[in-house]
Design brief:
23% of the residues lie in helices and 21% in strands. By secondary structure, the chain is α+β, with helices and mostly antiparallel strands. The chain has a three-stranded mixed beta sheet with strand order 1-3-2. The N and C termini lie far apart (44 Å).
Length: 103
């Protein structure tokens, strides 16, 4: 809720654990999708904020009053299960693979 308050045009916020590197755009794209798929349940970890002020640049909003719906997602691992269960799998030797050899 703090993120939505601090930035009124923000339409979606996803909270992740510190194993997701926010400075690496490729890692974020993959890791956030992974975190949402493996660390949350929509019925308890999604928050929907309907009919709230949004951005004038959002064409999907109700343009007369700039009302939109926002979503927040808690994609953090539960402390009720072993942390190891939520580690992102590593492919042995992946750093040695040159994809240009296959494309």
């Amino acid at each position: 809720m703090t993120a939505f308050t601090a930035h009124p045009s923000l339409k979606m916020a996803i909270v992740v654990d510190d194993d997701i590197n926010p400075t690496d755009p490729i890692a974020v794209e993959y890791a956030v999708e992974y975190a949402v798929a493996t660390r949350c349940q929509a019925d308890r970890d999604f928050i929907i904020i309907a009919n709230t002020k949004g951005s004038s640049l959002d064409p999907s909003s109700e343009q007369d009053n700039l009302l939109t719906t926002k979503v927040g997602i808690d994609a953090t691992a539960t402390i009720l299960k072993a942390k190891e269960r939520f580690e992102i799998a590593k492919i042995p030797g992946e750093e040695k693979i040159d994809l240009s050899e296959y494309l």
